[in-house]
Amino acid sequence: MQKESLIVLLIHPEISRTKYNFVGVIENECLELEYISTILKEKGYTVYLYDGQVEQQSVATAINKYKPNIVYVCGRTRQENFMLEYCKQAKEYSVNTITIIGGLHAQLCYERMYKPYVDYILTTFDIYKILDIIDYAYNSKKIELQQIEGICYKENNVWKKNISRAFDINKLPLPDRSYFYEHPQNYRYLELEHSAWVRTAYSCPYRCSFCHRNKMNSSTYVCREIKDVVYEIEHIQSNHIYIVDDDFLFNIDRLKQFVKLIKEKNIKKKYICYGRADFIVENEAFMKELKDIGLYYVLVGLEAIHDGQLKKYNKKSSVYNNSKSIEICNHLGINIMGMFIVDLTYSAVDFRNLYKWIKQHQLKHVAISIFTPEMCTETYDRYKDRLITDNPSHWDYLHLVASPSKLSVKKYYFCYYKLLIKLFIKAKKEGVYDFINYGDYIKSFVGNIFKAKRDNDDE
């Protein structure tokens, strides 16, 4: 088969088939697919992107329309059902279609993808392995599957896994953002419309016990050269940049170089990034410099309002840092998004106290996640006897997947939705997220309190 006739369909799954997908509020650019698109097009292949957040046609329709030789799907745990469904549809279209699954979920939970309609699984960030698979399958190159690191494959209908190694993010090309530019009304982070994703590092340098992101990239934290990052930002046709590193505010010398280059090139954009409370407290003057170059949102994992809980999570920070970081950001005019975990040990009093703490510390932007033991981790193993669901769609941090210790499941959800309603009412009064239809969300939360089955239980 000639290169110009080889067609590849790259798919980013829909988040959910219910109203709880937050499409129109937070929509993530398909950065991984854009990297892959670049390397495929450089080889002369025809590439199509499909993003379930924005597409109106179904995946099955897209497959029949584009007639791909290869279908690649990536996603997170909550999208597992969709990823497998798409691969099955691709095989139903043609048994000769090669199906590949990659992304964050596949790196750790590859065995969950061992299905007859899946051909290859990528367990690495090294997207160039896709080219090796194509060479093996189509280009008659002398390459053996056993030699391709970072993949799972079938041999005589038995799955095999090759070794995975850390990937150097500096080897990535600039992403092909043509699909992003074709959808100027999508890809927003709250009020920041058409926000472009930029990644400057893989994995996380910290070891919080509840999080599995530090296990990615073979548990190796790797950074891009800042000059390359700034070059990419300078040439993106968007004024809103979402730096999606698990923690961008890490290496102060690297960050100072970032600020210096942004100023030298006179780049005027707004930035969203993740950071830690202790960094903000220890670097208040530098946070002012970040504000001056356009830092608009900093997403901070505050997690808890008690030091004992933070210690349990191996957060290596303190409640003092949490409260002080809010004070600093409020003073500087940086929007701090405080992210909390409602633990399985929560009582009704704990839910009420969390709301009081948020209100007392004048925290306007809040995200509340239910404690979720991540699949294929030690935490999951500790909670496996308490699991109340095996539906991967529920691994969205909005569902209980394990039984609480102090409340019934029904009572826990009652307290959780009550907290969300109070936070939504508080935000509405403060004029936060004016573009959101608060009424729809509050009505659905109220409905879920009194229903035996919640609206977002099904996918």
Average pLDDT, rounded to a whole number, is 93
* CATH topology name of the largest domain: TIM Barrel
CATH class of the largest domain: Alpha Beta
Number of helices: 17
Low-confidence stretches: none
Question: Measured on Cα atoms, how large is the radius of gyration?
Answer: 22 Å
If strands are numbered along the chain, what order do they take across the biggest sheet?
Answer: 2-1-3-4-5-6-7
Count of structural domains:
2
Counting DSSP E segments of at least 2 residues, the number of strands comes to 15
What fraction, in percent, of the residue positions are helical? 25-40%
> Strand content of the residues, in percent?
15-25%
Report the major sheet.
7 strands, mixed
> Any idea what the CATH superfamily of the largest domain is called?
Aldolase class I
In whole angstroms, the N-to-C terminal distance is 38 Å
Shape, per Cα inertia axes: globular
Class per helix and strand makeup: alpha/beta
